[in-house]
Amino acid sequence: MSHLYKIRDKDRRIVSLKPNAVQLRMCEQTQNDEPVRAFFLKSRQQGVSSWWLIWWLDDTIFTPNTITGILAHSLESLQHLWQILRVALENMPNEFKPQIRKSTEHEFAFTTNSRIFTSLSIRSTAVHNLHVSEACYVDSGELEATLAACSPKSNITLESTGNGVGGLGYELFQNAKLNMNGFKCGFFPWYLSPEYAAQRDPSMPPLIRTADETKLTAIAARDYGISISDEQILWRRMTQKALKATFQQEFPENDIEAFLTSGGRYFDGKKVMVLINEARTYLRKNPPHEQTEHYTAFFPPEAGHVYAAGADVAEGLGGDYSVLTILDATAGRTAFRYRGHMAIDAFAALCAKRAAAYNNCLLAVERNNHGHAVINLLREVHRYPNLYYESGGQRAVAREFIEPAYGWLTSSKTKPIMLDQLKLAVEGDSLEDEKTFSPEVMILDELFLSEALSFVEKDGKLTAEAGKHDDCIISLAIAYQMYLKEKIKESRKDFGILVGGRRESFQKLDKALRLSYE
């Protein structure tokens, strides 16, 4: 290919295609595959798109009756990809240049009955070769329809930079990591590209690397078999100083960082990504007891187990979701989660039914907005026997008893406390990293974990990013408060039930809960 095709380099020169380190790795990883099915996550400007466009152009030119489609996410990207194809084709040696039957702004058709085209939609065209550029940015519905149009023998390559958690592109990569969809996958960090290096005076002594830089150097040697130079370390320092919080987004150093795009994240993104992969692996081997579009019963109710539930009620039938989460306080794990749009009376009925099934567990409904209506229905219509309430006590002067307040109040005082305690339960000890941490509770709900990755602290407030949701977070946080209350009752009975086998951590939580609410 180096003898046939040319590209426009970063210095605006037309030069022969000479595979770089990233392109060689992709070639080695897929050269014997029939068909090719691969998804490569990348840093910026590593030549991944150029390689696959020219690779499939070559196959289209020299294999009659071949149709190749290039899917892009935007018109700007479409034009950029087309220029790569145009430069490669127009600068081929004359003796190998194919005869073009038809040429448009987005298609080359050859006399061999083969053609290659770029498009924002390929759902109606069956292709032999498909390349998807910036797959994580392509609309999920469009990507799904395009993949569905491919035959089992079609070659499919995808490449992308990360675009946050969620969407079909993200799902495809994560499933490829778990060998669940027939795709190979790979991630290419910035340090595979030698041009990311700063000039340095050779007479200067070697850089003294920080602990973080030493760790990165070890990872590069272990995972990629390369040695990171002092010039690359210096470039990293300079670029981190210039980009600050966006360095990780622009130049991720592992496939976890690639999907963590937001600043001010409340939960530890690396730990949450580990939990997502662990949940997927576990559920693949141990499918949920029951599952529909809106709810998942991860485990059936078990006699003798103590459960705790929290409900977050949506405002209206659109926008936010109503969520019910049930935790198993005996086993220390998620037992059930519902999330959907449902009328108030229907959601109250669901809460009553599911909480009753899980041994009439302690149920707390957030008593904000529409939560009052759900609480009233649970009390007066469903007569739920174990509804959480806050004791009113007695007025000192009038000696009047105050009515108990049913439900959980999320306020400026309780919200930080409940979220801090949930954070500790999910992440374990803050001093432990993503490879050694031990959660207090087994979290299998990927919807919650996805929300956790877009939950931020902004202007002193804890909330979801714009366009994202936090209903599962609030529901689980309330359920976890009930969980702790049940654990305290159990510990007072000296039942010796532990969370994840970590008595010391639980004692800290117990003490914090008592100080916060007593």
Total number of helices: 15
* Count of all domains: 3
Form type: elongated
Question: Which structural category do the helix and sheet elements fall into?
Answer: alpha/beta
CATH architecture of the largest domain: 2-Layer Sandwich
Question: Residue share in helices?
Answer: 25-40%
Largest sheet: 8 strands, mixed
Question: Could you give the distance between the termini?
Answer: 73 Å
Rg for CA atoms:
28 Å
Average pLDDT confidence is 89
Task: Write down the CATH class of the largest domain.
Answer: Alpha Beta
> Strand tally, please?
20
Query: What ranges have pLDDT less than 50 throughout 5 or more consecutive residues?
Result: 495-518
Major beta sheet, strand line-up: 5-6-7-4-8-9-3-10
Beta-strand content bin:
15-25%
**In the CATH scheme, what's the topology name of the largest domain?**
Nucleotidyltransferase, domain 5
